[in-house]
Protein: 2-polyprenyl-6-methoxyphenol hydroxylase
Amino acid sequence: MPAVRSVLVVGAGAAGCATATLLAEAGVSVDLIDIKPDVSALGSGITLQGNALRVLRQLGVWGRVTERGYAFDTLGLRAPDPDGTLIVELTDVRTGGDDLPATVGMYRPDLAGILVDRATGAGAKVRFGTTCTAMTQDDTGVDVTFADGSSGRYDLVVGADGIRSRTRRQLGIDLETRSTGMGIWRVFAPRPASVTRTDLYYGGPCYIAGYCPTGEDSVYAYLVEDAQDRSRLSPEESLDVMRSLAAAYHGPWDEIRESMTDPARVNHTLFETHLLDAPWHRGRVVLIGDAAHTCPPTLAQGAAQALEDAAVLAELLLAHDAVGDELWTAFTDRRLPRSTEVVDASVQLGQWLLDREEGDVPALMARIAHLLAEPA
Structure:
């Protein structure tokens, strides 16, 4: 018998949907809730590296991901000069294995929809527009009251509700989420025919200017600047700011910039980070994904680490016959060291740019690639 027969998963992002899918497919009764009114996801695009693709294949959605996304195996570095000169094209590491591409770019809401559909198809009962208002637990389960007035009792609650996790606050965990000193502009746009991989430009008015193909007809492009409050800008002002910053970058950026006409396709967020030390659980409530660890997107590992959390947690819950110290020790031993290395490396890459320091980027990237190539 698995350690749990009924589970509540809070948060229908990558971590929550993956957990719900894997448990429901194994016969566990799963309720999956999200405070948002629907499956829509903030953002323009998402970069999924091989270790994320490995879990997506395990979930049974690899076919749909390949249909909607854009796969590639190289990374380009370009100069911030009048021609956007290509300096070098690097072969990327296939961290998910030789039978998976190194990277897939996707429109983020497409991925969100695929994952929710898969969880529903596996048997999870999905409810949007509600959240937990109270949790009371004892040695055998957790009693939960929901915002709509309903209630339920579960063997386990999984808090996969993101960086501002309400579940984490309900557990009384005080975790500092801090800005790393950078902010990022993103836009979703038509894909120029010349964009067939991620290219990065270092220098100019931004720390990084880059783009990633997200489908045959789409790309998301981004500009990384110093952290500042952009929240008071109107959508039209935000578009003007991003177009102005992008004016310094050329090559494919010229075509991307000309297509940037819709303010609704532009968004700005800050780079933030936190890392919860062990344990990630309190009794029969456990935190995963961004609720436990979040990192700036310098390594494009946020969703990948969330998916790995889900896969490991589900594996252990199905392999153990009780929720207890043995299970939680195994979970911590497998997830905390790996997540810590990824978070620290992601922050370090950004800090080198902020300090204008020439750190040993190749060595750091090689170390993380070697780590991620190993199963979680």
